[in-house]
Automatic annotation (TrEMBL):
Keywords: Electron transport, Iron, Iron-sulfur, Metal-binding, Nitrogen fixation, Transport. It comes from Gottfriedia solisilvae. To ferredoxins from P.putida and C.tartarivorum, ferredoxin I from A.vinelandii, ferredoxin II from D.desulfuricans. One of its GO terms (molecular function) is iron-sulfur cluster binding. Residues 58-87 form the 4Fe-4S ferredoxin-type domain. Coiled coil: none annotated. Pfam families: Fer4_ETF_QO. Could be a 3Fe-4S cluster-containing protein. This is Ferredoxin-like protein.
């Protein structure tokens, strides 16, 4: 007998993670002018699965607390304008299994 595999929504998957946010961001947009003048598509707002990057008129808001530490922004920014480090030990994403 075949078993039907249940599809999970992104909200359900996100329920399986918790965050212990540091007070200091581990993500830095180095130069907002580059975002403003050289990156019309603001691609970090598209490729980040956690929607960490939000463009606010003339600058990038970085909601680092919800970062999934996937590392995509290390290579995804076409101008190498994001400095990415792992959060300090004991901080960042915590995966809950089951
Ligand atoms: S992808 Fe890079 S340059 Fe473009 S908006 Fe994001 S941080 Fe700025
Ligand atoms: S590491 Fe992944 S989740 Fe975190 S800000 Fe970069 S793209 Fe978003």
């Amino acid at each position: 007998m075949s078993e039907t595999k249940k599809e999970h929504t992104i909200e359900e998957k996100q329920y399986l993670v918790r965050f212990n946010a540091d007070t200091k961001s581990h993500l830095t947009v180095l130069d907002s002018d580059i975002c403003l003048t050289k990156c019309p598509d603001k691609v970090c707002t598209i490729f980040c699965p956690a929607e960490v990057y939000k463009w606010e008129n003339i600058r990038m808001h970085v909601g680092y607390e919800g970062c999934h530490e996937c590392g995509s922004c290390r290579i995804g920014c076409p101008h190498q304008n994001i400095k990415w480090e792992y959060p300090k030990g004991g901080h960042g994403i915590i995966f809950r299994l089951g």
